[in-house]
């Protein structure tokens, strides 16, 4: 891949992750307004599914593969991850939540080594160890760890399992249809939780934020699908770490949340781990 193509890819991925963070920023605004995280997660999946359905050109007869246990389990993990991250955002700064969330690639890496017998390189292992140290600096594990931080770690763990299941399904379904499958199944899974919470009736501002949260998140994930279709996933994955930039900036601008120096150091190590992985893959 040429330098120009890499710059275009990096721009696409950065726009994608910024849209995802924007969706979660809307989600945090909603939780601060008293909206239940499960309602936000439920409407996010449902609205995104309605928008993506025409783009996927999915016929009813093509819903069969969605009964595959791997597809269902993958959707369970992403639905749990989204619900957990929205719960974490109720009380924790955005940058810290996304810092903890990046335990996900490490979980995916370990699962791939154990179950898929992937042979990791020493360099990649060291870089992931650096990223893990960064996560520890962000979450500050101990008896005083905030509940929101625990939910952020749960979200990252769920996301790591989701990434692993995506590897298992590689080539089984077209990327757009795989994305739609998680939206449809996630909507079904979250419907009982969404309906058990009070809906924000006659609150136009709240509904606008719910729609914005769903559409920006869906647009970001769709762009990531496009990026993964135009470049190798191993090249796209490290670029996702630029999400930390968007999370930090939006946290400061929208909520006035400045990570403390320890968290800043952790975020720097996590970003360095991602950029190091990108440089390693470029060199290869």
* Overall outline: globular
> For this entry, what is the oligomeric state of its chains?
single chain
Would you report the number of β strands? 0
Beta-sheet strand percentage?
Answer: under 5%
Largest sheet, strands/sense/barrel: none
Q: Mean of residue pLDDT?
A: 86
State the separation between the terminal residues, measured CA to CA: 12 Å
Provide a count of the helices. 12
Structure, explained:
With 284 residues, this protein is an all-alpha fold. The chain is 78% helix and 0% strand. The model has no long low-confidence stretch (mean pLDDT 86).
In short:
It is built from twelve helices and no strands.
Task: Write a concise keyword list for the protein shown above.
single chain; about 280 residues; mainly alpha; about 0% strand; globular
Indicate the topology.
Elements: H1 3-32, H2 37-56, H3 69-89, H4 94-101, H5 104-115, H6 122-139, H7 147-168, H8 175-195, H9 204-230, H10 233-239, H11 243-255, H12 261-283
Helix pairs in contact: 1-3, 1-9, 1-11, 2-3, 2-8, 2-9, 3-7, 3-8, 4-6, 4-7, 4-11, 5-7, 6-12, 10-12
